[in-house]
Amino acid sequence: MPGGRLVLHVGAMKSGTTFVQSRLFAHRELLQERGIRVPGRRRRSQVLAVQQLLRGGGPMWDKHAAAVSRHDGTSVISVELLGPAPTAVVQALRDGVDAEVEVVLTARDLNRSVPAMWQETVQNGRSWGWHDYVIGARTDRPSARRGAPATEPGRAFWIQQDLVRLARTWASVFGPERVTVVTVPPPGSAPELLWWRFAGVVGPELDGLTSAPDPNESLGAASATAMRRLNELLDAEGLLFPQGHQLRKRLLTKQVLAARKSAEPAIGLGVLPWVTEEADAQRRGLVDLGVRLVGDWADLTPVDVPGIDPETLDDREVGEAALAGLAGLLAALTRSAGPDADPA
Known about the structure:
The chain is of the alpha/beta class.
């Protein structure tokens, strides 16, 4: 019998995953003293290991699996890329880790997920328009779709946000009793509530950890629109994402443009009828699967997202965001070059 326990946090995307991961790694050494192992020296290590697993395996994943298997207490791996993993990958994970596995699926209400996912796809090099994205999500919603998705935006959204499909895959391998849905609290809730819920699954060793040094900031409407247009121009130059990933996402979006969020209108979305219908279908599907719940199913009730339709922005607002992004990018590159850089 396995000697240890692995809490495997698999997403969904944009459901507080970066918040959880940042706090785990900020306190990695303290957690080790408390008997909780977080494999990898930094968060990126777990991402790279999981990417290897998704491609069929590799030395970094083997190292993480061995670290979990050697530990006779609780280990935690948190990577949202695992959420939509196919059954064969989930089975390979099960067979390669000598531990009792508990799967955690954090889940956010569907209406908040739509704008969050759109701006994230823009950060990841996509150039789908806002309206096309919302229409795609509606067209390819699981409760109405028959067969393959009809749109690329819809396919991309539901790969990450079809909570029932994600939970069903993991439950088919580990059993529904080992799959826990942790709901993201609604707006206005205590800031620590999601962490308390996650800690309720992992154990009391997570109590008292309060820092979160690396939030995954989203973009305002103007910056997201500027990035969408930039992606179109780079695609036309043959520079398809992830080429330039460090400059485009790590520096330009996550540092420069994310810092402008408070100065821009947010991406807004009122609750549409199809969103309510799909959220109800997801909730029923999760209940029918028999997975464990931490939180409240009511947390998945869609709520309005305050803000604007990004396609109503005028060119001046988008241009200001683009110029701010260019200035911030050049400033960062100039500072990194140092005072002795060749002016020629």
